[in-house]
Amino acid sequence: MEDGQLNFSILNSNNMTKLTDMPQWDALKQHHALVYQETIQFLFNQDSNRFDKFSGQLASLFVDYSKNRVSDKTMELLIELAEAREVLQWRDKMFYAEEINFTEARAVLHTALRNKSNSPIHYHGKNIMPDIQAVLKRMADLSERIRNQEWLGFSGKPISDIVNIGIGGSDLGPRMAVTALTPYVHEKLNFHFVANIDPSEIYETLKPLNPETTLFIVASKSFTTQETLANAKAAKLWLLNEAGDEQAVAKHFVAVSTNAQEVSAFGIDVRNMFEFWDWVGGRYSLWSSIGLPIVIALGMDQFEEMLDGAYETDQHFLNTPIENNLPIILALIGIWYFNFFGAETQGIFPYDYYLRDLPNYLQQADMESNGKRITRDNQEVDYTTGPIVWGNRGVNGQHAFFQLLHQGTRLIPSDFIIPIQAQHPLADQHLILAANFLAQTEALLQGRTEQEVNNEMQENGINQETIDLLVKHRTFTGNQPTTSILIDKLTPKAFGNLIALYEHKIFVQGIIWNINSFDQWGVELGKVMSQKVLDELKEGDTVKGHDASTDGLINAFLKKQ
Ligand code: F6P
């Protein structure tokens, strides 16, 4: 197939019955009608082996999914659905370079970036592994020079601050990884991430920095993204203002992109460009040269460890029978909640300060991947697809929104994530953190009955009138599902294990929903429309012709501008 030509064979090979017409779907629907009132407590009482059965180890991750509203029968039916949707066949298509991103005529090969076996992967008749290795080598060289203080700025001083300018997938991955792996970051280097077009963001980032010792990484797959180019331009001006000589740009700017032409047009020497390829989706790109800040921060050995960790998860996904295959199991449990119980959201609660950016990262990974309504065979879905992903780190969430989890009306499946070994145990603080993690998932499961509250209040000598007034308010239904992920220790390898687990979970859900998880046309409309509005704001004349609200807002803005 020619580059850029749409791959209709993927459509044709997709002779799938509509999801909601499948007997496996119907079986799940009937099963749901029978069991939807069964509580997780009940399921535990039914089966003393439940914890062992519904948990598993994936490298350094221990995943406990026993606190979910699933029984053996539920899992059996969900697995039958996965088989009928040919999840394993689609997994193989992804790993072996079929153009499953058919609306952009691209393969989806982020797994090749961490193919530690180095076995050949052919795409368009070419083994892509040597190119991947070559870019890794260049990244290692650059990072070593910076880490050894051999890369000097225009005035001969070593680099102390690295500013990554990028947005979406060109920001969230490296930002989250560098934050998550802070204990492994080179102690003389500081990392900053600028994404937003909001001028305050770059202003505040640059304010404390010294142009003589600052290196900018302009990261953009397309190198046409308005926000990134505007920020990169501002950064260049800031540098030139001090350096006074265009020659300084080569010492202070490197680019990460698939688009050499635009990089060069911007004024960055393509010898300072780190390549990646259109078969790496933006939100799956932290394993590619988009991970350059991670390599500079950690050194290539630790970056390789991170790739190793992702590779371990890939091997698990490829080689583990479906009934023990954790990304598939977690995906299926999600399908059960979103499509049969009507749950709308997925909570992500890392009990780890270093993982505080994980909810944001997974928001893009999941919502940009599976926020789709048209199937691979061009039909509008009649079922819900990607959930709203949200969250915050524990225990902060406990003192903010957990009230709604405990006593609100919504079903919110949530992932709780914690490293077993702390980076800094600090007396017993890590144990207190872990105790909160464990107690929260227990409380969300067990709740507290009216009888328990009543007895406890009586024991505390509270009079019956007060008890009667308060008892319902102090009752918890429990039965709120959680999945717990224990990480041995948050090392680069374990981090790789974790992120790849989520990537594959998202992939499996996309396959079941029969959508293309790898395009993002939905982001385009806003971009196009903002250009028209920008022209109007620049012209400054009263506008007419949008909807009345947008006209009104533009005119109100212009009046006080
Ligand atoms: O937000 C849409 C999007 O295309 C993302 O998918 C992508 O990660 C981001 O913009 C940045 O794009 P680029 O890397 O091309 O600047």
Q: Approximately how much helix is present in the residues?
A: 40-55%
- Major sheet: order of its strands? 1-2-13-12-10-11
Bound ligands, each once: 6-O-phosphono-beta-D-fructofuranose
Mean pLDDT: 96
Low-confidence stretches: none
Radius of gyration based on Cα positions: 26 Å
Structural class: alpha/beta
State the major sheet.
Answer: 6 strands, mixed
Tell me the total number of β-strands.
Answer: 13
What general outline do the C-alpha atoms trace? globular
Proportion of strand residues: 5-15%
Instruction: Measure the end-to-end span.
Output: 52 Å
Structure annotation, total helices: 23
General description of the model:
α15 (326-341) packs across α21. The longest helix has 22 residues, at 492-513. The N and C termini lie far apart (52 Å). With 561 residues, the chain is of the alpha/beta class. Helix content is 47%, strand content 11%. β3 (122-123) and β4 form a beta hairpin. The protein has 23 helices and 13 strands. The protein binds 6-O-phosphono-beta-D-fructofuranose (F6P). 6-O-phosphono-beta-D-fructofuranose is lined by residues 167-170, 220-222, 225, 228, 282-283, 368, 520, 523.
Keywords, separated by commas or semicolons:
globular, 561 residues, 23 helices, six-stranded mixed β-sheet, binds 6-O-phosphono-beta-D-fructofuranose, five-stranded parallel β-sheet, 47% helix, alpha/beta, single chain
